[in-house]
């Protein structure tokens, strides 16, 4: 099983979905560490309750962004992580960090990328009057929310939606597509290659071999 670390800043519901999926015996990844950049993140408690190791590494404890990221990398390496899932991690990682983990960082963003990169995607989708919205899991590259897409899920936008109701509908889909994307990456069925995702098909059992 691929050792995975999850980086959070808050509630951690996507983290919980990943932990739940990874608890299944046939899931190809296991969660070795949850790191939060916020000591008050609710997700820390959720992870601890199910026996996952956690570390709080806040930016204010370090003189620079580089030192903060070096501390995160040290914790990830110590835990043996080979993949990183950003799950509501609200800090923009430096090019140096991303380069060190090239092709091994996934993020979930609550929009159908490349629409609505960055902040307030639900509000901007409502303001634009789009009828379909959703979420995307992508590999992290230097440009914010612009890395190649592994998985997406769509929801309808309803006439009486508020930011809150729309976010909740999208979140339900996030919890389904993030474990799916992690599974594909951990199995090598989706791989970062030359700035794009290369998808492979699951080998089918040969006729007569079942
Ligand atoms: C999720 O909706 C996630 O997609 C979003 O923050 C929320 C975190 O919720 N992430 C971003 O906006 C990243 N730019 P969670 O902590 O319950 O998973």
Describe the protein in words:
The longest helix has 24 residues, at 163-186. This protein is α/β, with parallel strands linked by helices and 210 residues long. It is built from 6 helices and 9 strands; from the N terminus they run βαβαβαβαβαββαββ. The structure holds glycinamide ribonucleotide (GAR). The site of glycinamide ribonucleotide has 14 residues, from helix 1, strand 5 and helix 6.
Task: Give the gist of this structure.
The chain has about 210 residues and is α/β, with parallel strands linked by helices. The protein contains 6 helices and 9 strands, in the order βαβαβαβαβαββαββ. The strands form 2 sheets. Strands 3-2-1-4-5-6-7 form a 7-stranded mixed beta sheet, sandwiched between helices. It has a two-stranded antiparallel sheet with strand order 8-9.
Q: Give the low-pLDDT segments.
A: none
Number of helices: 6
- Overall SS class: alpha/beta
Q: Helix and strand succession?
A: EHEHEHEHEHEEHEE
Mean pLDDT: 96
Ions, cofactors and other ligands present here are: glycinamide ribonucleotide
Amino- and carboxy-terminal Cα gap:
25 Å
User: Share of helix among residues?
Assistant: 25-40%
Largest sheet: 7 strands, mixed
Instruction: Please indicate the percent range of residues in DSSP E strands (runs of 2 or more).
Output: 15-25%
Top keywords for this entry?
globular, two-stranded antiparallel sheet, alpha/beta, binds glycinamide ribonucleotide, 210 residues
Helices and strands, with pairings:
Elements: E1 2-8, H1 13-22, E2 29-36, H2 42-49, E3 54-56, H3 65-79, E4 83-86, H4 95-100, E5 105-109, H5 121-128, E6 132-139, E7 149-156, H6 163-186, E8 190-193, E9 196-199
Parallel strand pairs: 1-2, 1-4, 2-3, 4-5
Antiparallel strand pairs: 5-6, 6-7, 8-9
Bound molecules: glycinamide ribonucleotide.
Binding site for N(1)-(5-phospho-beta-D-ribosyl)glycinamide: 12-14
Enzyme class: transferase
Pfam families: Formyl_trans_N
């Amino acid at each position: 099983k691929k050792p995975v670390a999850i980086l959070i800043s808050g509630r951690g519901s996507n983290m919980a979905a990943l932990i739940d999926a990874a608890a299944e015996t046939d899931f190809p990844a296991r969660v070795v560490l949850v790191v939060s950049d916020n000591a008050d993140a609710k997700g820390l408690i959720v992870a601890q309750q199910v026996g996952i190791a956690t570390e709080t590494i806040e930016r204010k404890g370090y003189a620079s962004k580089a030192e903060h990221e070096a501390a995160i990398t040290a914790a990830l390496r110590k835990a043996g992580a080979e993949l990183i899932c950003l799950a509501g991690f609200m800090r923009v990682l430096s090019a140096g960090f991303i380069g060190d983990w090239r092709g091994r960082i996934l993020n979930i963003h609550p929009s159908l990328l490349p629409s609505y990169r960055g902040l307030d995607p639900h509000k901007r989708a409502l303001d634009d009057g789009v009828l379909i919205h959703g979420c995307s899991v992508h590999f992290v590259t230097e440009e914010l929310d612009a890395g190649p897409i592994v998985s997406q899920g769509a929801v309808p936008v309803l006439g009486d939606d508020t930011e809150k109701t729309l976010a909740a509908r999208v979140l339900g889909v996030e919890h389904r597509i993030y474990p799916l994307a992690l599974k594909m990456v951990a199995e090598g069925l989706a791989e970062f290659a030359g700035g794009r995702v290369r998808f492979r098909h699951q080998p089918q059992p040969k006729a007569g071999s079942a």
